[in-house]
Design brief:
The chain has helices at about 70-80, 110-120, 125, 135-145, 150-170, 240-245, and strands at about 5, 10, 15-20, 25-30, 35-40, 65, 65-70, 190-195, 215-220, 225-230, 235. The protein has about 260 residues and is of the alpha+beta class. Among the domains are: about 100-180, no CATH class; about 190-245, no CATH class. Strand 4 and strand 5 (about 35-40) form a beta hairpin. The chain starts with a strand and ends in a 15-residue tail after the last helix.
């Protein structure tokens, strides 16, 4: 990778895979989540897991007459069997998936810890855009189920809130620590929750200024550094490093060389 063919662009880094198409659909796969972005040409033309994209949050395919439906009922509603398949209806009475969304009494002991995290002032630009209540409840359940703070079920809630914050126009903080959901990057690169997906390379150092894509989390060069690709591996360089490379066209950066 990257891979280009027939209007499809596929890219991969240490944390996600991105599929971009010329028909206005972008899909990003993370270890614990998938995100689909579509253009305005699809307004009122989607359904099922993509929602109906009509701008009205009170009307969606995940509820029926104002009541949230269970994942089992939702799947049954949208299943499309092949002509020769004989699909047996699942037992909806045995479906307890909605019950697990309610915070049990044993999880309530974690409420203050979870609220303190999401309501910290460092998340203020996020909570201005997104109600954290759903994530607080999810985090409380995580702490009931998970054995330690680096379990994927714990980190996934934080990660999703951070991504949704970026998507809504907020700026998430760099909340990860070596002890909490740590991410590791290649040498010379640093992890950032809110970086431009358009990489500033050493040959084109202003790429991110023209970027129209939404900021994402991942590994980036530190501020003031640029990305230089050695074979296919990225390496971050300072201006002085660039100007010392005998094989590099340094005249592009002569205004920055010291």
């Amino acid at each position: 990778m990257p891979y280009y063919q027939a209007g499809i662009q596929l890219e991969k880094n240490d944390f996600h895979i991105k599929l971009h198409t010329k028909v206005g659909i972008t899909v990003m796969w993370y270890n614990n989540a998938v995100m689909v972005e579509i253009g305005d040409e699809y307004i009122n033309r989607t359904c099922a897991l993509c929602g109906n994209f009509n701008g009205n949050s009170n009307y969606n395919d995940f509820s029926d007459e104002g009541q949230q439906i269970s994942p089992m009922k939702f799947g049954k509603k949208w299943r499309t069997p092949r002509p020769n398949d004989n699909c047996e209806d699942p037992n909806e009475e045995a479906d307890t998936s909605l019950e697990t969304e309610n915070v049990t009494e044993e999880c309530e002991e974690f409420e203050n810890i979870c609220k303190d995290f999401f309501e910290d002032k460092s998340w203020s630009s996020c909570t201005d855009q997104i109600d954290p209540e759903t994530y607080i409840k999810a985090r409380m359940q995580d702490m009931c189920r998970c054995s330690n703070t680096n379990d994927s079920c714990v980190c996934s809630t934080y990660s999703e809130f951070s991504r949704q914050c970026s998507h809504a126009g907020g700026i998430p903080p760099n909340w990860r620590t070596p002890e909490l959901c740590a991410k590791h990057c290649p040498p010379t690169m640093v992890y950032d929750e809110y970086g431009s997906p358009c990489i500033d390379t050493c040959r084109f150092p202003d790429t991110s200024l023209l970027c129209e894509d939404q900021n994402i989390d991942g590994c980036f060069c530190p501020p003031g550094w640029c990305c230089f690709f050695v074979l296919i591996m990225p390496e971050c360089l300072t201006t002085s490093n660039i100007c010392s490379l005998k094989t590099f066209s340094c005249h592009v950066f002569i205004r920055n060389c010291v």
